Amino acid sequence: MSDEVQIDKELNIKGEVCPYTFVRSKLALEEMETGKVLRVIVDYAPAIENVPKSMTNEGNEVLRVEKVNDSDWEIVVRKGS
């Protein structure tokens, strides 16, 4: 990872499917302060498109979406105002 970002909270929701992946991510962000960074770990392929799109629509900044191993992805989001 070239641009290292300070992760403030991590949410592992492997085994969850849409729309729960977004709902759980949104609830986690709601507990955080503006500007804080959430790292979400998912293993459900549709979530790697749906969660970032929904997060952007909610006014948050998606910093990256990357595959971390054969089955898991990370979605890193900065909470918007």
Low-confidence stretches: none
Number of helical segments?
A: 2
Q: How confident overall, as mean pLDDT?
A: 95
CATH architecture verdict = 2-Layer Sandwich
Shape: globular
Kindly report how far apart the N and C termini lie.
Answer: 26 Å
Q: CATH topology, what is it called?
A: Translation Initiation Factor IF3
Percent range for helical residues? 25-40%
* Beta-strand fraction estimate: 25-35%
Within CATH, the superfamily carries the name: TusA-like domain
Number of domains: 1
Please give the order of strands in the largest beta sheet.
1-2-4-3
Based on secondary structure, the structural category is: alpha+beta
Give a nutshell description of this structure.
This protein is α+β, with helices and mostly antiparallel strands and 81 residues long.
Describe, in plain words, how this protein is organized in 3D:
This protein is of the alpha+beta class and 81 residues long. It has one domain (9-78): TusA-like domain (Translation Initiation Factor IF3). 27% of the residues lie in helices and 28% in strands. It is built from two helices and four strands; from the N terminus they run E-H-E-H-E-E. The longest helix is centred in the first third of the chain and has 11 residues, at 20-30. The N and C termini lie far apart (26 Å). The mean pLDDT is 95.
